[in-house]
Specification:
Helix content of chain A: 40-55%
Number of strands of chain A: 10
Number of helices of chain A: 13
Order of helices and strands of chain A: HEHEHHEHEHEHEHEHEHHEHHE
Largest interface: A-B, 16 and 16 residues
Oligomer: homodimer
Structural class of chain A: alpha/beta
């Protein structure tokens, strides 16, 4: 499947009444530090606190009436779990979320709070997949993958579409990369709606499967990721990777301290709460700032769900 | 001196090119908790991170050319010190700030960062006043009081003016109260620009001089304040108190845990960084929420300057 310009336009029309059009913020001080002009698309202000709401909403809205009756299912211990639960609730359909038994209570509480039903499994890949399969067989719910799904990718692309609509002359756009849904969607948006805006990703060195895959030209699975950016622990998928390979300019790796410093900068100077996974993009830009001197750069702040009693500073 | 409607209109015209028009944010979840419809005027996004920028700018812009040549001086270890330094810098004039020797390094650094000159003194009232007097005598700088000054009060009132311009049908507006500059300015704005919007203040029980003064009808000085809301430690002044006495509906006191809970709520749900002093207003509303059921209430988030490595959660 190829995601066309028309697909993206229809996606935005489809979901726009169910999501927030998030603001684009700027900071004189961070511009001065970066030597470039930065435009922060604040998906931390999105419903449930992250861009994932866009993809989840788009995927649900494209289900048939019959499919909707059986509900949706996913596996996630992160923002997609909450996003699917809330998006399903807004459409009055049922959402099942398979979560590892060791997932933080606060994340389980958030999914429950949005009306999602949690099915716990042992914290390993095999248990997760078999639990999900059993669930889907039993309930007839439609499985929606957190990122490796074209409708999800389309939805995530709408954040960059709005950013481009607000600022049509960007030289580049930075996003973080985990499973690649946001990055692939952003790359397609830039491809279809700009004249040459380049797309870059920031990735933690401690979870650099996307960088490795990008270098090698084939998917290298994530193994033993170790980073504070807990939304970026997943591997690329066979739907996200080809788009990234074709349309992304580069993937830049950053150290943990650089992620934390960028996070602190955003909190202290912009007075907004951004989760570590979302500050990886700014960290990558600042690390390579010489290459982007005097350019106009969009940065997608992907989410703001952080546990305030476990901050790295 | 009476501050007229015309004074306030001229003040906003005078300063508007030097300050940010800050956004008004809303939160479905906090509305549900409160049982009322809340409109948060986000002065944490103001230049230097607090509403104090408004009053400092207005006071400086009303100096004569000769006065400007000698610069301005104040005593403050908080946001007014930074505000005066930045406002002076933007007008190319000199700012002197008397700060106690035990003021946090981070606050001194912020004043220096904005180009202000710090004069240290012993951490007591007498030393502060004599140091300031010596400074003014030596330099000829104009002393601008952080809150007990009509031009400062006028400037602080412009935050509520903008809020009222955006939402003309508010039943009430809540602010925190320390020295009373923001509260007096807000009360005057509501008096001149609304048909009966009532103004309320939140105050920590551990620093309740304004509540005591309001009850007794005369200024009761602050003694041994003890609260996390470090911007609210000052006493009311002879210029702020009469305005408050005349135009404020009520002052509501809150416990420390209520301040911290409101702070956490704002950070977690609105994804913005607000300092404890600024969350006292929401804490007061939530404490008395039954009285404000189904009303439209403005809340001024006064600032966002917090030390991230010393959070109460």
């Amino acid at each position: 499947m190829i995601i066309t310009k028309q697909n993206l336009l229809e996606t935005h029309q489809r979901i726009k009444n169910y999501i927030h059009r998030t603001p684009v913020l700027t900071s004189h001080l961070i511009n001065e530090m970066a030597g470039s002009e930065l435009f922060f698309k604040c998906e931390n202000f999105q419903k449930m606190g992250a861009f994932k709401m866009r993809g989840a909403t788009n995927a649900i809205l494209q289900l048939s009436k019959t499919e909707k009756e059986f509900g949706v299912a996913t596996h996630s211990s992160g923002n997609f779990a909450q996003a699917l639960a809330l998006a399903a609730k807004l459409q009055n359909i049922k959402a099942y979320v398979v979560m590892p038994s060791n997932a933080p209570e606060i994340k389980k509480a958030a999914v429950c709070g949005y009306g999602g039903e949690i099915i716990e499994c042992e914290p390993n890949l095999q248990a997760r997949e078999s639990t999900l399969n059993d669930l889907v067989n039993k309930t007839g719910a439609v499985f929606l993958h957190p990122y490796n799904h074209y409708h999800v990718i389309q939805g995530q692309g709408t954040a960059a579409m709005e950013l481009i609509e607000d600022h049509s002359d960007l030289d580049g756009i930075f996003t973080p990369v985990g499973g690649g849904g946001l990055l692939a969607g952003t790359a397609l948006a830039a491809h279809h709606f700009t004249k040459g805006t380049k797309v870059f990703a920031g990735e933690p060195i401690g979870a650099d499967d996307a960088w490795q895959s990008f270098q090698k030209g084939e998917i290298i699975p994530q193994t033993n990721p170790n980073t504070i950016a807990d939304g970026l622990l997943t591997s690329l998928g066979d739907k996200t990777f080809p788009i990234i390979k074709e349309h992304v300019q580069d993937i830049l790796r950053v150290e943990e301290e650089e992620i934390i410093a960028a996070m602190r900068l955003i909190w202290e100077r912009m007075k907004i709460v951004a989760e570590p996974s979302s500050t990886v993009a700014l960290a990558a830009l600042l690390k390579e700032k010489e290459k982007f001197k005097n350019q106009k750069i969009g940065i997608i702040i992907s989410g703001g769900n952080v546990q305030l009693d476990k901050l790295p500073f």
